[in-house]
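Problem: given the chain below (456 residues), write out its structure.
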Amino acid sequence: MNPGIEAATKAALSIGAKMATPDLSRKSDFWDVWSEQGPDGVKARITAAKTPGAKSDRQFRFISSSHLEFTAPKWLIKNYIEDQTTTSFFGAAGSMKTFVTIDMGLSISTGKDWQGNRVKKGPVLYICGEGKGGIKKRVAAWEIHNETKAPLFFVSTVAAQLLDPASLSDVEAAADEVTATHGKPVLVIIDTLNRNFGPGDENSTSDMTKFIHAIDHLKDRLQCAIAVIHHSGLADAGRGRGSSALRGAMDFEYNCDKSGETIEDQTLTLTNTKTKDHEAPMPKTFKPVLIDLGIVDEDLQPITSLVLEITEQAPAKTKGLSLANRTALEALKALAVHGDDVSETAWRSECYARGIATTDKPDAKQKAFSRARTFLLSSCLIGTRNDLYWITSSDKIEPGHPDRPGQDRTCPALSPLDEPDGQDIYLRVCPSVRSKEPELSQSDDFEEEEENAEYI
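Solution.
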């Protein structure tokens, strides 16, 4: 390729400009065009380049890999959300997933580190589909607890209908108003997918694809990150509800899992279940802390809300794995015998072959695999990146030794799992995560539950 044309193409692409060229059928430049055809010849070349449909007007083209520039990732929340990406947070009704995302959003809007992780400060737009009264209390509790105000955290007056082009345009116009006075937003939170979906069915791949296109358009239009709060499945708590197209489109995905019945014994574990281009971050475990808002109701009872605080727990010790979880772990160990990362497709097939479910129904096998994957990830027994998986430790490995040369993918604690034959297999379990089997929600009416729940 002509070096001059190559450099000009790169320059034009870098600033979104169009490129005018002289006669490429022979070696020439614009001085040659001027000499032979005068200024009208140069003008004609420029006019042709600006004509719609001209080569330089097309968005789709192929460029040399030598022009692809690698840049270091720009984090919105270091290790957890990258700038200008899409992230999903899913969990059962009452799993406190809204508390997590509001905590993140308020931290970003104020520039305050999120639970020990550096953030990029900027305006945050929160599209509220339900529970506006609860949102007010949660923001107030966060501000009291952190002793700071969050004026750059903006809450929508109504829900959006993102499959409706007119509603999507309204969201863009409202975002432009914020941009004009406070600068470009760095994050848009959509709470929840169902309440902001619009005229469609979240179980339909076609409709979910339209929703994905809508949030991608919003992300590109505003040049910001998008976070979607979503319900987990009714029969499969290890995945988001509805079409799996959503998970495939996400750059990051997190499961929110709450345990305990009272505030004193409740914990929330945030577990990464997908990351495209980075090492999966370690799970974080939180405890809810009750905050008095300094006002009372009509019965003179104090009005309160909750904030989340990171909690340190002793290493979780699992007395034994369920049959499905053990099957999934052993299947992954068998495939990763040489230390290679294992694709989700290969791991799933091996689990099916080993009989991970009690029946041969495809749906039952899929659910059993999904639940086992979520449990093993939340227990730090396995790691994931780019839909590849690995065991986080090997049998009888001493603490602190990396599983692979130059890659320390281990947690600092070991706990034995009792095998039926009496042999102990030592597997690392993250000390910041409790070990428990995921519970299945018994209610199908997620929206009605969440509207009346304090823990969303």
